[in-house]
Amino acid sequence: MNARPVLVFDGDCGFCTTSVNFAERRIRPDCTVVAWQFADLAALGVTEERARHEVLWVTPTGRVHGGAAAVARLLMRAGGVWAPLGASLTLPPVSWLARLGYRLVAANRHRLPGGTPACALPPGGRPGAR
What we know:
This is DUF393 domain-containing protein. One of its GO terms (molecular function) is protein-disulfide reductase activity. With 130 residues, this protein is an alpha+beta fold. It has helices at residues 14-27, 41-44, 48-53, 68-78, 82-88, 94-107, and strands spanning 6-9, 32-35, 56-58, 64-66. A four-stranded mixed sheet has the order 2-1-3-4. Helix 4 (68-78) packs antiparallel against helix 5 (82-88). It starts with 5 loop residues before the first strand and ends in a 23-residue tail after the last helix.
């Protein structure tokens, strides 16, 4: 297993790629960042279905956090002013709002700045569709 956490994102999605580039440039979390299309998902303990569905944070021990929880872990790992924001995203009722916000963004990422038609998830793959 990797000694650092791994952030897994959708490399085919322009919005996701733009968001990850921003995080790497401005937030600077101490993690390995990889598009799921180039990741060894089996070694990370992640299915392709889940990787297509949401951003993932995989800890060095193999625990997987998805969606808003992954964003929270990224912010906490960055430290500094980002850590309290990330920690707040793990506490109810903020965590409930964060999950809802994440679902809305994920379902509409093709409509957001940087988004392309490739960003659109098929109806069955949209968060909350299960």
